Amino acid sequence: MPSKLTTEPACENVDSSFLRSLLGYNTRRVTLKIFDIFAARTRAYGLKPVEFSVLNLIGHNPNISHGQLCAELALLPPNLTKILQKLTKKHLIQRFRPESDKRAVYLKLTETGQQQLHELEIVITKLERDSASNLSDEELEQLIQLLQKNYGKTA
Amino acid sequence: MPSKLTTEPACENVDSSFLRSLLGYNTRRVTLKIFDIFAARTRAYGLKPVEFSVLNLIGHNPNISHGQLCAELALLPPNLTKILQKLTKKHLIQRFRPESDKRAVYLKLTETGQQQLHELEIVITKLERDSASNLSDEELEQLIQLLQKNYGKTA
DNA sequence: TATTGTTATACTCTATAACTATA
DNA sequence: TATAGTTATAGAGTATAACAATA
């Protein structure tokens, strides 16, 4: 790319005050930071945040359906199918067709799945607390409450 | 996929309490919600959130360099290059090579760029306020403060 | 005909490696 | 030799369309 020359001085301290005043900018940055720590601490399990979310919901909601998972996690059906295939290959979940509606798929954890979910929940609970080390317990709780209040039942 | 049949009852109300207790889950959901509204309200400008962030930083930091932008926004150089090419094509930014170091690139907004940045900042300020309609002014401010305190200077 | 979930595929976003030019 | 930025490309994440099986 051809560019004109300049003798103007460089920009010294970067002013990002406008961006830092935006909720969306801040939530994205925090998400990226936490997901980095997540990747580092759960490497042994080979599961990404969304995949853990799916495992968790199946664990706490036996016989949850494909459609219910999509709605709860704002995932599109084709993408959830891939995640479920991966979890099935890792022998973490089992699939059942209800007699009452043979189109649907009901999901459950295997023994292995329950064990890994339990371990992961411990790792992640600790990880969450550590990733917010700048915040007191009260502040963290308050932060999460404010975030929930924001996206509420709509999403 | 072959699945066994079951006569067990469906899962009724989905319990997502564990996920909702996680900071990372909540920040991701809020980000997605805000970015959806962003897309809807800024469609006329044809800029995505990251592209707006770049435009904003260049506007508030004349002669900012490629490297400074990457550091501030946690972008990789090749991906920033693409964004800058798009902004250049839209005649929103200009590129200069400093006499002192002809490897570097200093960036500035064009007149058009300044105009569009100004308009976008108004749209986005309003959008941010509307997207957090469940929160009072005080709560929104507090929320942003807590988020900033979390990722602080490290990220 | 409508619904549940799958397959195939395209598009976007992010990441890595190799390169040019300056220093 | 090291640094700033670019190019090309690969991989992950997300989206749309068409389909099979069941209701």
In short:
The structure is a homodimer. With about 160 residues, the first copy, chain A, is mainly alpha-helical. Chain A is built from 7 helices and 4 strands; from the N terminus they run E-H-H-H-E-H-H-E-E-H-H.
Radius of gyration of chain A: 21 Å
What is the CATH class designation of one domain in chain A?
A: Mainly Alpha
Q: Give the spatial strand order of the biggest sheet of chain A.
A: 2-4-3
Mean pLDDT of chain A: 95
CATH superfamily of one domain in chain A: Winged helix-like DNA-binding domain superfamily/Winged helix DNA-binding domain
Q: By helix and strand content of chain A, what is the structural category?
A: mainly alpha
Q: Provide the helix percentage of chain A.
A: 55-70%
Overall strand count of chain A: 4
Distance between the termini of chain A: 44 Å
Largest interface: A-B, 79 and 79 residues
CATH level-3 fold name of one domain in chain A: Arc Repressor Mutant, subunit A
What does this structure look like?
Chain A is mainly α and 155 residues long. Chain A has a domain at 47-151: Winged helix-like DNA-binding domain superfamily/Winged helix DNA-binding domain (Arc Repressor Mutant, subunit A), CATH 1.10.10.10. Chain A contains seven helices and four strands, in the order βαααβααββαα. In chain A, strands 2-4-3 form a three-stranded antiparallel sheet. In chain A, a hairpin with a 7-residue loop joins strand 3 (93-98) and strand 4 (106-109). In chain A, helix 2 crosses helix 6 (111-131) and helix 3 (49-60) packs across helix 6. In chain A, 33% of the residues are buried. Chains A and B meet through strand 1, helix 1, helix 2, helix 3 and strand 2 of A and strand 1, helix 1, helix 2, helix 3 and strand 2 of B. Strand 3 of chain A pairs parallel with strand 1 of chain B, so a sheet runs across the interface. The first copy, chain A, binds a DNA duplex (23 and 23 nucleotides) through residues 1, 48, 50, 65-67, 75-81, 101-105.
